[in-house]
Amino acid sequence: MVNAEFARIAPDVKLGRDVRIYAFVNLYGCEIGDESKVGTFVEIQKGVRIGRRVKVSSHSFICEGVTIEDEVFIGHGVMFINDKYPRATTGSGALQTETDWVCIPTLVKARASIGSNATILCGVTIGEGALVGAGSVVTRDVPPGAIVAGNPARPIPSKEMRK
Fold first, then answer.
1. What per-residue string of b and e applies to 36-62 under the rule 16 or more CB within 10 Å gives b?
2. Where does residue 18 fall: left (phi above 0), alpha (psi -120 to 50 degrees), or beta otherwise?
3. Of 58, 144, 34, which Cα lies nearest the Cα of 44?
4. pTM, to two decimals
5. What integer pLDDT is reported at residue 139 of this predicted model?
6. What is the dihedral of CA 119, 144, 122, 55, to 10 degrees?
7. How, if at all, do strands 79-80 and 119-120 pair?
8. CB under 8 Å to 62, separation ≥6 — which residues?
9. Binning pLDDT at 50, 70 and 90, where does residue 137 land?
10. In angstroms, rounded to a whole number, what is the distance separating the alpha carbons of residues 70 and 57?
11. What HEC string does the chain produce?
């Protein structure tokens, strides 16, 4: 289901079977797997690979260098970052181009969940089945099955989850 009138989907986008895309989406140079959903006001940049049965909620930004495996949940307003030292200009004052920086990859493993308004810095892996709390800032790898929250995101002991 694609509402092409209100979505910008470049011809180089590879969409799997039964992908649902909602209005006001910008997709280019990416790949989205079967039965995934992309909410309103989402941008997915070139080189991004999204697996099967992934839900990307509204207002999220998935930049170049991000790979999201199968059955991952991306909450509302999640932001991925692919540059550790972002700058608008070079040392000489010229506007930067793609040749002036290095894209640092990020990996979200299968069945992980990322809560609304989380920020995921580049170069991290979020492990299989891990949960990132809403509003968290992920600055380092998240182990498989872990629950992390805060700024910076830190593991939450399982006994705290039972309260």
1. bbbbbbbbbbebbbbbbbbbbbbbbbb
2. left
3. 58
4. 0.92
5. 98
6. -60
7. parallel
8. 30, 42, 43, 44, 45, 48, 50, 56, 68, 74, 80
9. very high
10. 15
11. CECHHHCEECCCCEECCCCEECCCCEECCCEECCCCEECCCCEECCCCEECCCCEECCCCEECCCEEECCCCEECCCCEECCCCCCCCECCCCCECCHHHCCCCCEEECCCCEECCCCEECCCCEECCCCEECCCCEECCCECCCCEEECCCCEECCHHHHCC
pLDDT in tens, 60-100: 999 999 999 999 999 999 999 999 988 999 989 999 988 88
Whether the predicted pLDDT of 141 surpasses 60: yes
37: closest CA among 5, 81, 68, 79? Answer: 68
Q: What is the pLDDT of residue 7?
A: 74
Q: Do strands 49-50 and 79-80 pair parallel, antiparallel, or not at all (unpaired)?
A: unpaired
Token digits of residue 52: 């099967």
Residue 33 · residue 12 · CB < 8 Å: no
Q: What tokens does 125 get?
A: 């892996």
